[in-house]
Amino acid sequence: MNPKKVFKLLNAAQEELENKKYISYDSRVGIYCSILEEFIDANMKLLCLFYDSAEKVKGFYSDRLDVGLYSKFENQRRTLLELDEFRTYLDNQFEMGINFHRSIYAGYALWSSAMFQLTSKTFPRSQNGEIDLDIEDWDPPFFACLAYCGETSWEQVGDSGLRKEFWSWYLEELKTILV
After folding, report:
1. I need a labelling partner for 85 at 20 to 30 A (CA). Which of 5, 69, 95, 145 fits?
2. Are residues 104 and 90 in contact, defined by beta-carbon separation less than 8 angstroms?
3. Of 45, 39, 35, 42, whose CA–CA distance to 10 is shortest?
4. pLDDT at 113 over 90
């Protein structure tokens, strides 16, 4: 076990955050893979991070979308079929317009966290980050960041200050979980 390797990656992510105001997909995947290699309880540590990310933006969801569905989903272990139905529900909410995007992304953070818990989630490599990946491959903290700041970095409509604030929280949360 070599947690120094993980903390070295966290420090590199901190530098990236200072320069770019976000943490790239490749950096996050490197951190996740390193955690999976170095910690016996790695899945639990990642689940904590992913759940905490979804929890951080939960309020955005309940502001606009079906709170009963979220509560039902959040409080019980769901099957993959129910997760698929929840994902379809979220997909269909995009028709409601940009004012609902934060709420939808908050729902996706919860969906993605549950999918990681119930499946053998892997993190595929990507040359250009999330923009080249299927939405199923986005990690829960990325969805939470979208909810927190408003939109994706490539759409250039979200708040980059909020994006940096979220990823700073993420790094601190991750350090707390790893100790």
Report:
1. 145
2. yes
3. 35
4. no
Contact 139, 28 (CB under 8 A): yes
- Residue 53's closest CA among 28, 36, 78, 87? 28
Q: Is the pTM of this model over 0.90?
A: no
Nearest alpha-carbon partner for 12 in 138, 1, 26: 26
Contacts from 164-171 at CB under 8 Å and sequence distance 24+?
164/17, 164/21, 164/22, 166/56, 167/13, 167/17, 167/21, 167/22, 167/23, 168/17, 169/56, 170/23, 170/49, 170/53, 170/141, 170/145, 171/10, 171/13, 171/14, 171/17, 171/23
Predicted confidence (pLDDT) per residue in 79-112, tens digit: 777 788 888 989 998 888 888 888 899 999 988 8
